[in-house]
Design goal:
Length: 342
C-alpha cells in the first residue's frame, strides 16, 4: 500500500508563523500523529506533501525517518492548487499495483482500526471513502448518492440547496486504486468556485469508468476532525486527553477528575494507581502498583516504583523514585536523581 499525507496548507487561521501541521497535540506535532498511525499500516511507500513553512516540515519528517520505522519520502507542492494537485506531486513515487491511501496532516486522531476498515472495503479495485454523518455539515463536501450508491462528492461552495441538506460528509480520507488514480488526476479540471484541482472530482470519474465507489465510517466524528484554528486544536486536545483518560480508567487507574489530566507521551500504570487533578505527564512515565500522585504534579521521563506517594506540586524529571518513597509537597527532583526505598 502507498500512503500519501497532505501537509502543504498554510493554516492562516492558526495566526502563527509555525506551519499548521507542526502545532503540537499532546506534546507532538499533528503531522507526527498521522505519520505514526500510517506507519502502523506497514505501507510500502509513505510520502508527505509539504508546501508552506519552507524546510520546517521536511526537517521534522527527516528526524522521524531516522528512528527506524517505515521510510518517509517528501514532495513539494508549490504553488498550492488544491488536494488533487497535491496528490499529483506524489505520483512519481507511487507503486502502481498497490492502492493509495490519502491522509491529511491536520487530521490527527483517525484510528488505525478505521483506516484498516477503509482499506479492506476498497480492496485493490474499488475507490473507498471514509464518510461520516454530521448534524452540522456546513463547509464540508457532501456525499451524493443515487439508489444508495455514491456517484459524486460536491463541495459546499458548488452545492445546490438540495445537496447542502445532505448530512453525510467526505472526510477527505480515501483509498484509491493507483493504476486508475494516475489517469484520473491527469484529467482533473480547476473549473470550479475555488479554481482548484479537487481530489474529490475523481469520484465522478470512477463512476464513469465503472469503478465501484464504497465507503467506511469511523467509530466517532472526532476521528475525522481537522485543525484549522487554535480553537479547534484546543478542542481536539481535550478530546484526545479524554480518550487517554478513559483508557486509563478502563485499566483500573483512579483519576480524581478525568477532565483534568494531560498525558504528553506514554503513561504506563500498574494496579491501584491514583492520580489527582491537574497532573502533567511528559515523555515516558511509569507508575508502579499502588503509586499515588497528588494534585498539580509534573512528571517527565520518570519511573516511580511501587507504593510511592508523590505529594502535591512536585516536579520530577528524568528520575527514579524508589518504592514507598514520600516526595514533597513542592519537591523538585532534577535529571539523574535516583531515590532508593524509603
Amino acid at each position: 500500500m502507498n500512503v500519501v499525507i497532505l501537509a502543504a496548507g498554510m493554516g492562516k487561521r492558526m495566526q502563527s508563523a509555525l506551519p499548521k501541521v507542526l502545532h503540537p497535540l499532546a506534546g507532538k506535532p499533528l503531522l507526527q500523529h498521522v505519520i505514526d498511525t500510517a506507519r502502523r499500516l506497514s505501507p510500502s511507500k509513505l510520502c508527505v506533501i509539504y508546501g508552506h513553512g519552507g524546510a520546517a516540515v521536511p526537517e521534522m519528517v527527516g528526524k522521524l525517518a531516522l528512528d527506524g520505522g517505515a521510510a518517509i519520502d517528501t514532495a513539494l507542492q508549490q504553488p498550492q492548487l488544491g488536494t488533487g494537485h497535491a496528490v499529483m506531486q506524489a505520483v512519481p513515487q507511487l507503486i502502481e499495483d498497490a492502492p493509495t491511501l490519502v491522509l491529511y496532516g491536520d487530521v490527527p486522531l483517525t484510528t488505525e482500526a478505521s483506516l484498516r476498515s477503509l482499506v479492506e472495503a476498497a480492496g485493490n479495485d474499488k475507490l473507498g471513502i471514509l464518510t461520516v454523518e454530521q448534524a452540522n455539515p456546513f463547509g464540508l463536501g457532501r456525499i451524493v448518492r443515487e439508489n444508495d450508491r455514491i456517484v459524486r462528492i460536491v463541495e459546499e461552495k458548488d452545492a445546490s440547496d438540495t445537496e447542502r441538506a445532505i448530512r453525510e460528509i467526505n472526510s477527505g480520507i480515501m483509498c484509491i486504486p493507483t493504476r486508475h488514480l494516475k489517469r484520473w488526476l491527469a484529467a482533473l479540471s480547476n473549473n470550479n468556485a475555488q479554481g482548484e484541482y479537487y481530489l474529490t472530482d475523481i469520484v465522478a470519474q470512477a463512476v464513469n469508468d465503472g469503478v465501484e465507489v464504497v465507503s467506511a465510517s469511523p467509530s466517532a466524528e472526532w476521528e475525522v476532525a481537522g485543525v484549522n484554528s487554535k480553537v479547534q486544536l484546543a478542542e481536539l486536545e481535550r478530546r484526545h486527553q479524554l480518550n487517554i483518560a478513559t483508557a486509563l480508567l478502563e485499566k483500573g487507574v483512579t483519576l480524581m477528575d478525568p477532565a483534568r489530566i494531560d498525558v504528553r507521551g506514554e503513561l504506563i500504570c500498574g494496579r491501584d494507581v491514583v492520580i489527582d487533578v491537574g497532573c502533567v505527564f511528559e515523555g515516558r512515565v511509569e507508575l508502579a502498583d499502588g503509586v499515588t500522585v497528588g494534585p498539580h504534579c509534573v512528571l517527565v521521563n520518570t519511573k516511580v516504583e511501587a507504593g510511592a506517594n508523590i505529594k502535591p506540586f512536585c516536579h520530577i524529571e528524568d528520575a527514579v523514585v524508589g518504592p514507598k518513597s514520600q516526595i514533597g509537597p513542592y519537591a523538585r527532583l532534577r535529571p539523574g536523581t535516583e531515590l532508593g526505598e524509603d
